[in-house]
């Protein structure tokens, strides 16, 4: 587990020879805010940051995207790729917390599951051409998704999590654990099939390989950032949680470090950027779960 001093020293040594394009999904506050600030600080502002207002020399732009609708995620990814044919960094930190009953959108899925999973899947798929182009140009190609290390075996009888979301707070807790595994299975390398270096169109993907398996030259990390002093945590009734939460700036440094250190392929990291190994341990149905979930997700996203 690296110390914060090592993390900061390593990040300070990062000097990209090109202005990287960073896409921050959920960066206006909290964990995403810390990562945006660290990214801007260590590139000395010499980067395109897709979250804020534009400036003449470099882009600081906010793309409005309500992730509760998958169609919005698909449109946003297409708009970004049209503007920036090469994208080097994608950080997905957006969350959605609500104790309300099942909230089915016009697309036929619960708004929380859409925001935390389906829309992230759609964004990742839509940005792949730009990530591959960046790698081909000798630039970084790195993706980070948050919520690692807290998953459970996939409930194959409840894909889409409708049963969880109609069961109050106990169902909400079950949903969060399932979402963590959904995001593991979305990115991790778990099968023995030979990877394909070019991902096919969405309607040809099928349900047997993850994003990392299909794009072995790109780094996909799934992370657990730990307790962070965010606006969401301020609403927690636990004074202990609020007391031990790390600062947003500290979290940003650790999470940037984890992504910069990640090797091509899939990995999972903890709150200090340390490797916590891939998921699926002691889960005899990991492969079955991944294939069923991928096929289910492909169907949902491709039909919108």
Automatic annotation (TrEMBL):
The keyword Transmembrane does not apply. Keywords: Oxidoreductase. It comes from the Eukaryota. InterPro entries: NAD(P)-bd_dom_sf, Sec_Metab_Biosynth_Oxidored. GO terms for molecular function: oxidoreductase activity. PANTHER family: ALCOHOL DEHYDROGENASE-LIKE C-TERMINAL DOMAIN-CONTAINING PROTEIN (PTHR47534:SF3), YALI0E05731P (PTHR47534). This is NAD(P)-binding protein.
């Amino acid at each position: 587990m690296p110390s914060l001093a090592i993390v900061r020293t390593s990040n300070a040594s990062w000097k990209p020879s090109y202005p990287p394009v960073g896409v921050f999904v959920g960066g206006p506050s909290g964990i995403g805010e810390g990562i945006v600030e660290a990214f801007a600080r260590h590139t000395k502002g010499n980067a395109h940051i897709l979250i804020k207002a534009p400036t003449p020399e470099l882009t600081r732009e906010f793309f409005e995207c309500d992730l509760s609708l998958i169609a919005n995620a698909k449109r946003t990814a297409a708009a970004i790729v049209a503007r920036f044919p090469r994208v080097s960094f994608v950080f997905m930190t957006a969350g959605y917390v609500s104790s309300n009953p099942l909230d089915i959108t016009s697309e036929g899925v619960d708004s929380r599951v859409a925001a935390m999973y389906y829309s992230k899947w759609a964004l990742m798929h839509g940005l792949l051409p730009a990530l591959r182009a960046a790698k081909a140009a000798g630039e970084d190609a790195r993706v980070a998704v948050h919520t690692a290390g807290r998953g459970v075996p996939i409930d194959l009888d409840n894909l889409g999590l409708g049963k969880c979301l109609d069961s109050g707070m106990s169902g909400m807790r079950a949903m969060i654990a399932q979402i963590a595994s959904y995001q593991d299975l979305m990115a991790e390398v778990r099968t023995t099939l030979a990877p394909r270096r070019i991902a096919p169109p969405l309607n040809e993907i099928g349900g047997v390989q993850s994003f990392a398996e299909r794009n072995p030259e790109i780094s996909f990390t799934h992370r657990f950032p730990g307790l962070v002093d965010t606006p969401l945590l301020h609403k927690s009734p636990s004074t202990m949680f609020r007391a031990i939460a790390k600062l947003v700036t500290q979290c940003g440094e650790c999470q940037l470090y984890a992504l910069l250190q990640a090797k091509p392929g899939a990995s999972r990291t903890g709150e200090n950027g340390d490797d916590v190994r891939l998921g699926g341990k002691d889960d005899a149905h990991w492969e079955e779960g991944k294939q069923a979930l991928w096929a289910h997700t492909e169907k949902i996203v491709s039909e919108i």
